Each structure stands twice: as C-alpha cells, then as structure tokens.
Amino acid sequence: MAKDMEQLYAERLRRYTTAMRKGKPDRIPIRPFVAEFVAKYAGYTCQEVTQDYEKAFAATRKCAVDFDWDATVANMVYGWAGLTQAIGLKYYAVPGVDLDVNTGFQYIEPPEDKAWMPPEDYDALIADPTGYLFNVWLPRVSADVAAPGQPNTLRNNLSFVKGGMAMMAYFGGFGRQADLLRRESGTVSAIAGILKAPMDILADKLRGYLGLCTDLYDRPKKVLAACEALAPHLAHVALSGADPTKNVPITIWMHRGCVPFVNMEHFERIFWPTLKPILQEIWRHGHQVLFYAEGKWGAHLKRFAELPDASIIYHVDRDDIFEVHKVLGHKFALSGGIPNDLLAFGTPKQIREVCKKVIDGVGRDGGYIMDASAIVQNDARVENIRAMTDFTREYGVY
Amino acid sequence: MPDETRELIRPPGVCIPWEEKLKELPPLKGDARLVQKVWEDTDSLAYTYIWQCLLSF
Known about the structure:
The complex is a heterodimer.
Chain A: H1 3-20, H2 37-42, H3 46-51, H4 53-67, E1 71-72, H5 81-87, E2 92-93, E3 106-107, H6 122-127, H7 129-141, H8 154-185, E4 188-189, E5 194-195, H9 198-218, H10 220-240, E6 250-254, H11 264-284, E7 289-293, H12 301-304, E8 312-316, H13 321-328, E9 333-336, H14 340-345, H15 348-362, E10 368-369, H16 382-395
Parallel strand pairs in A: 1-4, 5-6, 6-7, 7-8, 8-9, 9-10
Antiparallel strand pairs in A: 2-3
Helix pairs in contact in A: 1-8, 4-8, 5-8, 9-10, 9-11, 10-11, 15-16
Chain B: H1 18-24, H2 32-56
C-alpha cells in the first residue's frame, strides 16, 4: 500500500475512533451510511447492486474515492439477492424480479394470521431457539427447505449447499472490500457485527409486528421468556462478528420496540430488560455498539443513559438531535441528524445550513460523527450529499 | 439415526453439541481434543448460517 494512503487511513481511523469515544479529533469525521445512493452515483440500477454484490462493492468504493469520506459501510445494500434466492427466502421483494429495477429491495411482512411463527410455537422457540430456527422456522420462510419428516427434495439439498457457500463467499467479500477501501481511498470500513434487540427480532422475523402486539397483551410472559431465550444467542452472534481490533463498533438496528409502536410498560418490562444486558456484555468484551435508533426513540433516552459511558454511539434518526444531545451528550458520542427528506428534496444551501446548525449545537466539543439521519437511498440528490460532505470538511475543523 | 427434531440444550454457537456427537463415535484412538475442536469449529459455521439468516437476511 502506498505510504500516503496508509497514513491517510491511520488519520481517518484515529479521527473516527476518537469521535466515537467522545473525544475531540482534528475535525468531525464524515461517515455516511449510503445504500442505493451508491448505485445512483456510480451509474448502476438497484437491481444491479442488489443482485451483483461486486457491483455494490465497486459503487461503494467509487463513492469513497470521489467523496473522500473518513468511513463508510462496506456494502449497505446488505441483502444480496443471490443469497436470499439460493436459500429460497420468501420474504424479499427483489428489484428486477418483483420490483422496478430502480426500487430498493423490500422486506415483506406477512399478515398476522400467516406469521412465520404462530403463537402456539412459543414454547418450542423458548426451549431450543437454534433447533426451532432450523427445524421449523427455516422450512416456513424458505420455498425450498423441507421440514424434518417431510420428503427430502433436490431443492432442499441445494438450498443448504448453495446458501452456505454463497454466504461464505459474500462474507468473505467484505474482508476483501475493507482492504480495498483502505488501499484505494484510505477509507475505514465503519462497522463490524450485527445486533438486533430480542423483541425486535421476534417481531421482524417470527411473529410479525401485529402478532407481537397481540402477544404483548395475550401472552406477555411468553414474549418475555422468548426474548430471554433469544438474548444469549444474539449476544454471541454480535460478538462473533465484531472487529477483533475493537476499533469499529457492532451495530444494533433498532426497529419497533419504542413508544408508540409498543407502550411504555412493554418497553420497560420486556424490551429494555432483555436488551440492556446484551449491550453491557458487549461492552465488557471491549466493543462499542453503534446504536442505530431508526425512527423516534426519544421516549426512552433516560433508559439508554443507564449504559456505561462511551459504550454506545447514539445515532439520531427522527428525534430532535439537540434534545438527544441534552440527555445523552454527556455520556455518548452522537451521529446523524441530517434529515433524509432534505437530502432528497432540499437544496445544497439548506443542507449546509442544517449541517452548520448540527455542528454548532452538537459537535462543537467533539463526540459527533456526520451522517444522514437514516440510510441514504437513491432519492438523495448527489449535490446534497456533496454539500454535506464538503461543508463538514471545511466547517467541522476543531 | 438420532431424532433431529428433539429439543437439545444448545448453547450459543452450537447446533449439535460435542457430547451428542461423541455418543455416535467409536472409542477415539487419537487426540480427542482435536476431534472435538474440529467438530465444534465446523458446527459453529452451521450456527452462524441459521442465525445470520434470521438477523441479516
């Protein structure tokens, strides 16, 4: 690697990690989470970056070179359709197959009466989560996998061979991509490892949101027991994918466990008591968590403030970032806060104004990372992403 | 053939516990720890597969 590129990488890693630990680096790091935007910028369709992950990787690297960001996600169009098709997963709508070629992939949640896990399955899930996923859940969510006791099929066998090998190839590609980002543009691969809250994953992939809401009233003890059963596995998966150098954080994608999706009592009695210990466990292992608070989690900020200092980086989506800063800014670094609707429909002047406001109000003492509020899709205007980047580089110097 | 649908105590990272696999094997003539390590390492790949299906895809 060219020495100057390695030096650039080292500077950016130091800038990024310093800010994440609530320190004051030389300037505010720029770390956009860009998904289908990379396709738009690099001249690909959503279909191309969803079905051909090498194009997604290439588009991400092109953005990293051209925008000169400090860090970015190796591939934010994470749901590679080759893999989901190999496994036969039923719950994806894929651009170029089910959707227009320029629409991002979608997750299809079944109606409540067709949830992937019916309510009578709670005990089986609680008793043996891994066994349940293999024996019951996977045959339901896959068009190809046969459940134990059903006649075996070629498609069943192929699902595991193709799915397993495809997953290995794809995950292996992330290591290569991180290395290329480093060598080609000195860019840091921003995150490593995945976490979801037990109650969120129960809603997302098992009971569905409506099913979960019914259960919270009809069988709350089962919901709590299921979350407790899932929690050690979710912690294990998060740690097994974490950055061994402990520089970049594990990301938790916070979904629908907040008010008003659920009420405060359910958050207090089930959501938070089954998530908090996972976050504490991860911190005990020396890893930070990027707390990607999708939507509005403002009703729960005081609970999040219970976590150890600097154990998370709190990412702000639709909450008021200045209010979040008042409650959490003394404990955690913040990121985000640049509205996606403004990136899509606003002007560069408006973007510069909002960036200035956020930097002045939140980032003046360090502990802030510039990013959009939510994952950037192909509705964002290139000139607005450019304005966010260039303004922060100029104005965000300490 | 073991009953693959019966509920087992499967700690995180494990699909088929080594203790279960050991029951199927003849008395080991060599390094038992090596056999166990290789079993557990490859078993954990299957664990990763199903939990990544749940979480990431």
